[in-house]
Amino acid sequence: xxxxxxxxxxxxxxxxxxxxxxxxxxxxxxxxxxxxxxxxxxxxxxxxxxxxxxxxxxxxxxxxxxxxxxxxxxxxxxxxxxxxxxxxxxxxxxxxxxxxxxxxxxxxxxxxxxxxxxxxxxxxxxxxxxxxxxxxxxxxxxxxxxxxxxxxxxxxxxxxxxxxxxxxxxxxxxxxxxxxxxxxxxxxxxxxxxxxxxxxxxxxxxxxxxxxxxxxxxxxxxxxxxxxxxxxxxxxxxxxxxxxxxxxxxxxxxxxxxxxxxxxxxxxxxxxxxxxxxxxxxxxxxxxxxxxxxxxxxxxxxxxxxxxxxxxxxxxxxxxxxxxx
Length: 325
What we know:
alpha/beta; Purple Acid Phosphatase, chain A, domain 2; 2 domains; 9-stranded mixed β-sheet; 7 helices; 27% helix; globular
């Protein structure tokens, strides 16, 4: 069926066209011209904002595009011998201390890592998400922004203190970006004022978009999506890549004429069925696993990546043993 005459096809509209329509005419009129629901246009708008690190404001709020304060694009890390611990997607929640988080702290204490990476989505941003409150009795009650921020600060400070000799690196995740995105969508005049960004509140961690280790490893929150993301990350990056975002906890080797490289998913430091996720997972079965990654280097070469897997309440699996934490 051909697209109706006189209407723009939203699937063919470029990001630039979407941005210009919202800035010039607002979401309601832009959605009308594109022939789609406002909710659908707002979802596209949020994806553009996250990808380009911008805030798009309609005419009622000044009609402009605000570039957010940038994290360093990449942090360079050189490591010859030692361990990098990579946790991800903690979605810290007040009063909730997951098995994976407790295990991560213990590994920080005992392995004396060279680098500790919190690979995005330490902060959840439940109150600044698009998901409504009250999904099932008290489980749907969301903490305030301040409560979540304090929980994130406390958990990351616990990790930092447990690894005093390590370098602490924090690649931004899409949930972390909610902290400043929501504020600047409403009051863009506050852009670049200290305190409006999550990194202003997470002390002694180095913010970035990616950590580049030696010449053959990238650690960042996300790249490709889908069930084969770990394989595709390594294939398209041309080097080993460690990501989070999908909560899947897996290692996918890829070998070609250049040798072997790995795609690693760090899983989640949260409980997959924790209160952070009730509202939007609807208690469906989740192909998620709680745990984190351990990367060991010898003479500058990364050995086969290992993962710590949460196998039950207060129990992890590590190198062929079940350990209570």
